[in-house]
Specification:
Layout: E1 18-21, E2 24-26, E3 32-40, E4 46-50, E5 56-57, E6 63-65, E7 68-74, E8 83-89, E9 92-98, E10 106-109, E11 124-128, E12 149-152
Parallel strand pairs: 2-9, 11-12
Antiparallel strand pairs: 1-3, 3-7, 4-6, 4-8, 5-7, 8-9, 10-11
Length: about 160
């Protein structure tokens, strides 16, 4: 007698998880590039990174296998409120916090000018608190152009 031996096989899907560093990106109000490192639980774990926030840019090379590093770009926050966004690494989230732009402040040096009635030239230095701060020059009847204004902006 010939018998048939039956068997069944079940393939078990690999359960992948990722550990990201940092899990929260504290971006500056002026934005910039931020690197996210992550470790996969296995070398064959597939991943994809994305963000639905229009102020967070994930590069086109946003997928891979195993552990990796991705540099994302955060746009400047020109608004008056702080904001929070997220980056998805498969089904896990990396949060991005960004403060609002601080109010612009200006320093003028010298703070006052005394000139003789006959007039004369003077240099004025203006320093803005941030390179994104707008400024204009408005003259008066007694102030004529051309005159030299040197504007210093923070790096």
């Amino acid at each position: 007698a010939i018998g048939i031996l039956g068997f069944s096989a079940m393939a078990r899907a690999q359960q992948c998880s990722f550990t990201a560093s940092p899990t929260v990106v504290e971006a500056g109000h002026s934005g910039g590039a931020y690197t996210i490192n992550f470790t996969a639980s296995g070398s064959t774990c597939n991943w994809i990174m994305s963000s639905s926030d229009d102020w967070i840019t994930v590069p086109a090379a946003n997928r891979g296998t195993g552990s990796g590093t991705v540099t994302v770009t955060v746009k400047p926050n020109t608004g008056t409120a702080a904001r929070q966004g997220r980056i998805a690494l498969n089904r896990q989230y990396i949060w991005v916090n960004q403060p609002q732009q601080p109010p612009c402040t200006y320093t003028v040096s010298p703070s006052s000018i005394n000139r003789p009635a006959s007039g004369g030239g003077t240099s004025i230095q203006i320093t803005a608190s941030d390179k994104s701060c707008p400024w204009t020059i408005e003259g008066t009847a007694w102030l004529s152009t051309p005159f030299l204004i040197v504007l210093f902006l923070p790096e």
